[in-house]
């Protein structure tokens, strides 16, 4: 073999090896992916001629998509190709009117169905999906006889009559179930009576002053916000004789006498307004009495207290007037037995009223002074015999009694059950 033939064999081998490498690269991806062996057994591979041109129209009509595409499911219906006609297509008269009428009928049916559903929902006849009422059986039992618990709500003896809404009764007054709800009476627990009452928080003088200052600042800030929003006009400047030049500079320079006169009028008007507001806030005589009465009733609701006093000699009119008048003003209940040998005062009421009355008898009244010269009160004094809390009030009002003799005194003491207090007072 010569050298030329050897070269031609080497070139042919190189060409074949490069073609094999090119084919192996194409088979790794893209359109050169081989069909899976499982698909080869199911879908037949189409056999195309060598001179087949897929771009020609005849080829596109001849190719069966189910045979050329192994991944296409033959059971899926193919969309038919729409052929476009060159001629005009005219709609017949009344076509869209019929379509509109059909749409209107559908909307009317939907609205009627919705209206019936709302009526049933208002009566509570719509099943609740959350409770699973839609799964309840609507079939009538074999007997079809209305049970006794449904007899009040069904106008008939059979359940089949409930198919008509007029046979369902929902407002029967004799029915055990109605639209009325009976709310039980709220009762407090027994232990709540013995629980300690929460005491209010008492502020010191400094804290009260600070609280009032904060409230004034908040009120002023709210007023300024309203002025900024235009809800109310801005207040006039508060001009005084001390700040005329800083507030009304130009006007004070032009005519100081007129400005001073106007400022004095404004100051007087503000003062009169302040006095008027105080008078409006001041309580009337009846309101003051009512306020004091409410305070004493509140004090009396906290507990009943009683105090017994012994007065050596009660002959001075001023002493007698102070004892009687203060007991009436403090709304105390009890009795004052004024006897020539010894006087006994028994009062009942709230703790604050009794505290005030105790100071009156033991501190404020000077029992040794008198306007009468025929009576010696140098050794006269008042002594507290007993004081404490009681369960109930024994007296209904305040009264003053003056017995004539010992027999009358004994009857008065027995009437109010004060014999023990009298004996105790004699020993003090």
UniProtKB/TrEMBL annotation:
Residues 217-231 have a biased composition (Basic and acidic residues). Keywords: mRNA processing, mRNA splicing, Nucleus. Residues 1-31, 59-83, 217-238, 277-296 are annotated as: Disordered. Residues 307-425 form the Small nuclear ribonucleoprotein Prp3 C-terminal domain. Its main location: nucleus. It is found in: Nucleus. GO terms for biological process: mRNA splicing, via spliceosome. Residues 69-284 form the Pre-mRNA-splicing factor domain. Coiled coil: none annotated. It comes from the Eukaryota. GO terms for cellular component: U4/U6 x U5 tri-snRNP complex. Residues 1-18, 59-80 have a biased composition (Polar residues). This is Pre-mRNA-splicing factor 3. It comes from Candida tenuis (strain ATCC 10573 / BCRC 21748 / CBS 615 / JCM 9827 / NBRC 10315 / NRRL Y-1498 / VKM Y-70) (Yeast). The lineage of its organism: Eukaryota, Fungi, Dikarya, Ascomycota, Saccharomycotina.
